[in-house]
Specification:
heterodimer, A: 358 residues, mainly alpha, ABC transporter involved in vitamin B12 uptake, BtuC, two-stranded antiparallel ribbon, 4 strands, 71% helix, B: 327 residues, two-stranded antiparallel sheet, 12 helices, 75% helix, globular
Chain lengths: 358, 327
């Protein structure tokens, strides 16, 4: 009834291939964007920004990057956090070497560094496949974190070994550092995430996206129909690490404010893999759904006993939290292995023919 | 020139100059290598029989050790004797590992049969998280001491004086190596001689064929996970005796991954040889190259990079099954 597609006729190829061929999808997107840009900021408190909205956006972006590689190009990677670290440290170095540079430019530049590192560690993918490749990407994970610790130039020879973000502004508006207002940071992150997501929706629809999908489905067959495997795989690594790098820089500059090397250690990599899988591999929207679930769930679980009037020690709570998240992951995998995006697709199909099921 | 000398010549000069210290380094490497091999063996068994890349193997080590220590602490006031308590706690822990194997098969694996590899892999990470939370919830998150003496593991040290130098072997390390050898041999005998063992290998060779001759998938899976649990317990005991029992032990699970890459995911002998090779090489690299040239702590990544380089020449690991791809 609300999702009726009848009567929407396509008379040209352009309109049939449009980004949103069905009018209701467009309306839905406008509603979501309006909620993100207008309605949430009207009600959000500082805690909501810092604990929910900004983290969800940043994790979605990182997961989108991983999804390009794993969901679209079929190369399982467990080293995402390492590449996020490369982005963050690159952005940090760029802003210290060129203090006058606009932070937006620095962000998008830092992505190129992580892309380069990503391509270097993606080279083995030409020889190694499957789980062997997944373990091989762990090499980058451990090596990069070790490098962040040992290479003092990266953190400007700080005694603490951590990077700290100084106050920076864009045209007089403070966006980073302890003085920045969470709302400004939220809008900044939201803007970048929107732009990158839009670019990726189009990229995955286009020539590159189709090449990646062909490689994912069977790389030998893809090679036989004339796809250059090396170019396809390495471009997937480059684009993926570029986005992941930006996500890492955003995480440190617009959320955490400071970072130690072990922030980019293996638990974060796994968290992002979870988001991508629970959200749905090979889907752009799934990343956002997955991030909402994985990031918001622990926050809600932490608040839950308080709301129910129970007093549980914070340590116990944390243990129960890990346990619950672990079992929920298993449960989601059993219920819908193709992720939340698939869930939404099923609901949408049902809605289109609702209320007549046949 | 200076750098070249430091990289290419100086380490060997030092090895030759202090042979007793070099032997000590080799021994330390061998001990950790044996333990890596044990963990990798747990991986390989599960991967061979079910194509599941069991990420939870590392946490099973911690969980088994924690259960043993936790049960022991719980039992001592009732029994009054450390040794009797240990003697009761040991079979109880084995029972817990069996219950774990059963519930993993029933709750996680059975509903996920036939799903893509990556989904099963993710499920084992889910198991990992659950076990971390559960273990900390039940036994507490703080560092514990392994009940080395109550289990009758010797704690002294043996001294040698080779080349007029000095070599110290801790008895618990010797115990670890001996136990690992015994465990591996009995496992090999079990896999090759018993009906159950043959069934496991049959399942590894060809799933459908094994099913069609009447091998029960779920029984074998429970069995394999239980064996992995026993290996985990053994690893947990000896590793816990060296480094204490806490969730920091988890990192050794990551060490088993390059071992698997190097040896091949399906090969039992690959796991053993790969484990020992990586244990030795990473120790030697850390002492003679890592600490003087790279600022130390290279053990976190050396094994991975080394395995990666080997893999570039042999994409299926040294002893893995050749990957044949057809369109």
């Amino acid at each position: 009834m609300f999702y009726r597609t009848s009567g929407q006729f396509k008379t040209t190829y352009e309109s049939d291939q449009a980004l949103f061929p069905i009018k209701q999808d467009m309306v839905l997107l406008v509603v979501i964007l309006a909620a993100m840009y207008v309605i949430f900021p009207m009600f959000a408190s500082e805690f909501t920004y810092k604990a929910l909205l900004v983290p969800v956006l940043i994790y979605s972006l990182a997961s989108l990057g991983l999804n390009i590689l794993t969901g679209y190009a079929g190369q399982l990677s467990l080293g995402t956090a390492g590449f996020m670290g490369v982005g963050a440290y690159a952005c940090y170095k760029i802003t210290t070497i060129f203090p006058e540079m606009n932070i937006i430019v620095a962000l998008f530049l830092s992505g190129f560094f992580s892309a380069a590192v990503g391509v270097a560690f993606g080279l083995p993918s030409l020889r190694i496949k499957g789980f062997y490749l997944a373990i091989a990407t762990l090499a980058s994970q451990f090596f990069l974190v070790w490098l962040f610790e040992k290479w003092a130039w990266l953190y400007n020879y700080n005694a603490s070994g951590a990077i700290e973000v100084r106050t920076m502004d864009i045209f007089g508006l403070v966006v980073t550092g302890p003085n920045a207002s969470p709302m400004v940071q939220y809008y900044f992150v939201l803007g970048i995430v929107s732009v990158v997501t839009f670019a990726m929706i189009n990229l995955t629809r286009g020539r590159y996206g189709r090449t990646w999908k062909a490689v994912r489905d069977m790389d030998i067959a893809a090679e036989l129909v004339g796809i250059n495997l090396m170019r396809a795989k390495l471009s997937a690594f480059a684009v993926s690490s570029y986005i992941v790098g930006i996500a890492g820089a955003l995480m440190v500059f617009f959320w955490k404010g400071a970072a130690e090397p072990n922030l980019f250690d293996i638990p974060m990599s796994f968290q992002i893999v979870f988001i991508a899988i629970i959200g749905g591999l090979g889907s752009v929207m799934g990343n956002f759904l997955g991030a909402i679930l994985i990031v918001a769930l622990p926050v809600v679980l932490n608040l839950l006993p308080e709301m129910l009037g129970l007093s549980i020690g914070s340590a116990t709570m944390e243990h129960v939290n890990v346990m619950v998240v672990g079992s929920l992951i298993i449960m989601f995998l059993i219920v819908e292995p193709h992720g939340l995006a698939r869930f939404w697709a099923l609901i949408r199909e049902k809605l289109i023919i609702w209320p007549f099921p046949h | 020139m200076e750098t070249l000398y430091n990289v290419l010549i100086d380490p060997f000069v030092q090895m030759y100059g202090m042979p007793d210290f070099f032997l000590q380094v080799l021994w330390e490497g061998l001990v950790s290598g044996v333990l890596y091999a044990l963990i990798a063996l747990g991986f390989v068994l599960i991967f061979k029989s079910s194509r599941i890349f069991n990420f939870a193997q590392g946490i099973m080590v911690v969980f088994a050790a924690l259960s043993l220590v936790g049960l022991h602490t719980f039992l001592v006031p009732f029994v009054g004797n450390e040794f009797v308590a240990a003697a009761i706690a040991m079979p109880l822990t084995l029972g817990i590992m069996y219950a774990l194997a059963m519930s993993v098969e029933r709750v996680v694996l059975r509903p996920l049969v036939g799903q893509p590899d990556i989904i099963l892999f993710m499920a084992t990470i889910g198991i990992t998280m659950f076990l971390i939370g559960f273990g900390e919830f039940v036994f507490g998150g703080e560092n514990k001491v392994m009940i080395t003496e109550a289990l009758g593991i010797p704690t002294g040290a043996i001294e040698f004086e080779p080349f007029g130098g000095f070599l110290l072997l801790e008895e618990k390390d010797v115990f670890a190596v001996v136990m690992a050898i015994v465990l591996v041999i009995s496992l090999l005998v079990f896999l090759n001689k018993s009906a159950m063992g043959r069934a496991i290998r049959a399942l590894g060779d060809d799933h459908t064929a094994a099913l069609s001759v009447g091998i029960s998938l779920s029984t074998i899976w429970v069995l394999v996970w239980f064996i992995a649990g026993v290996i985990a317990l053994a690893t947990g005991v000896v590793w816990g005796a060296r480094a204490g029992v806490s969730f920091a032990l988890e990192v050794i699970a990551y060490k088993a991954l390059p071992v698997l890459m190097l040896g091949g995911l399906e090969s039992v002998s690959g796991a053993i040889i790969g484990g020992i090779a990586i244990g030795l090489l990473e120790k030697v690299f850390e002492i003679y190259w890592g600490q003087p040239l790279f600022g130390g702590n290279t053990e976190t990544w050396f094994a991975f990079i080394f395995a990666l380089i080997v893999l570039l020449f042999r994409p299926q690991g040294l002893f893995g099954e050749k990957i044949i791809e057809r369109v």
